[in-house]
Specification:
Strands 1-2-3-4-5 form a five-stranded mixed beta sheet. Helix 1 packs parallel to helix 2. The protein is globular, with a radius of gyration of 13 Å. The N and C termini lie far apart (33 Å). The chain has one domain: STAS domain (Transcription Regulator spoIIAA), CATH 3.30.750.24. It is built from four helices and five strands; from the N terminus they run E-E-H-E-H-E-H-E-H. By secondary structure, the protein is α/β, with parallel strands linked by helices. Helix 1 links the parallel strand 2 and strand 3.
């Protein structure tokens, strides 16, 4: 049974980051919602994005494509995208597809925000 995708956006003015908290399944039906949320942030010039994926219960190839295109669009706009809270199924998927080291990953959102406050982001990829 599929878990509905829930996306919440919070802005952290002190670091200039937008945090997208993602919960549920990311598949061919729900990945357009995530792509749209990232696209809206990039359009609004909020290109320092942390994706909190701790609550992701499933991700298929459509979801992976969405993460990759999000990373590309933020980079092209002069920003970056980091993943926070990669665990379980999603971590196994990233490792299986050799994408785990392709993304910039932190243990949790506070870790990502700490990197942002120090300006310590390495380019993804």
């Amino acid at each position: 049974m599929s878990r509905e995708l829930v996306i919440r956006v919070t802005h952290h003015e002190e670091t200039g980051c937008a945090v997208l908290t993602v919960r549920g399944d990311i598949d061919r039906n729900s990945s357009p919602l995530l792509r749209e949320a990232i696209g809206e942030l990039v359009s609004d010039r909020r290109v320092r994005i942390v994706l909190d994926v701790e609550g992701v219960t499933f991700c298929d190839s459509n979801g992976l494509r969405t993460f990759l295109s999000g990373m590309t669009s933020t980079f092209e706009a002069g920003g970056w995208l980091r993943l926070a809270g990669v665990r379980g199924h999603f971590e196994r998927l990233l490792r299986m597809t050799d994408l785990y080291n392709f993304f910039s990953i932190d243990a949790d959102v506070p870790g990502s925000l700490e990197h942002a406050s120090r300006g310590g982001f390495r380019p993804s990829g």
